[in-house]
Design goal:
Layout (H helix, E strand, L loop, with lengths): L6 E6 L5 E4 L8 E3 L2 H14 L3 E6 L5 E7 L13
Parallel strand pairs: 1-4
Antiparallel strand pairs: 1-2, 2-3, 4-5
Length: 82
């Protein structure tokens, strides 16, 4: 299982845009105005760390989408959301 350097969560920032967080960190690694910008920032951070997972969360914290950033362990199943 990859360590936390290989994972980022994208979630709403309490009505003030979106935030990117690293599990276990006290502060966001990035804040943006749009979800698309937050996803882009999260994917760059994970790619720079060597690949891994980006999770998109609802305001209640439920994962509603996930993307693997190469060279992470991509599933052999086709991603039909992107």
């Amino acid at each position: 299982m990859p360590n936390n350097n290989h994972r980022r969560d994208v979630s709403p920032n309490g009505g003030r845009g979106w935030r990117v967080t690293k599990p276990g960190a006290a502060r966001p690694t990035a804040t943006t105005r749009t979800q698309a910008a937050a996803e882009k920032a999260a994917k760059k951070q994970v790619a720079d760390a060597g690949g891994g997972q980006v999770y998109i969360r609802t305001p209640k914290g439920v994962i509603r989408d996930a993307d693997t950033v190469k060279p992470g362990n991509e599933s052999s199943h086709k991603d039909t959301k992107h």
